[in-house]
# Entry
Amino acid sequence: MHGSDWVQMNAIQIITDSCCDLPVTIKEEYGILVAPMGYSIQGVSYADDSWETREPSAFYDELRAGALATTSQVTASQFSTLFSESLERGRDVLYIGFSSALSGTFNAASLARDTILRHRPDASIHIVDSLSASMGGGLLVLEAARLAERGASLPEIVRFVEENKLRMNHWFTVNDLEYLRRGGRLSHFSSAVGSLLQVKPVLHVDNKGRLVPVCKVRGRRKAVEELYRRLVERIVDPEEQTIAISHGDCEEEARLLEDRIRAQVPVKECIVTPIGPAVGAHSGPDTLAVFFRGEER
# Structure
């Protein structure tokens, strides 16, 4: 079934933002609407459209060459348009958004919902703060869309997302600490020392949706091994879940990690996808991340 056909048949419209990093193929298959974040680089502004109009390598090569990228959140006006158009088509709206601890985008969605409800108090608009980033949120959106396709009610889908969002593990490493430092995640001193000693941080997203360093290891190979170890140690019911690996233009390394996982862990499905520019501007080239459900984060 094509995504457009599916949207026409379903009474629930799933909406998210581009920080979920969902591949275009999944967005189209399930009729998911994605509100694009904005970003600017080299003085040119773009919409984060899940790499439909730009190649990931072009963006990340600009970062590697020293260009600075800035990002802007989705506005309340953009959300108001998306919500209203979906309601006009007779859909109930479910927005699952990027962590409120990392962006004001979720607050913009809340404002749009509240404004619409003042004029249309009977409108069905539900919003969920995923407290997640990149494909951590993307997997929640995907599961919500699959539940809708199977005929689950809106309350059932909301309950599933709320009950499982703090089970969504985010484990990642970055190749250059400078991008995290620019975003206020590291002091200049720790960034410089890390680059000098080839110390690579391993980070995750905590229960408040914040980016938190967990440990540092010496060298990239050990950092990638730590991602694998965390998954093996924490994943539950792998044969029943889809996991994801996201990368900042280092697909070969991501595929090697996928092969390593598949050889030892019977996961149902693994999605490998580039990190979008809205997230990649802050994590940098060669970021590598793995996402899966555990008993807890």
In short: The CA atoms of residues 21 and 134 lie 5 Å apart. Confidence is low (pLDDT under 50) at residues 1-9.
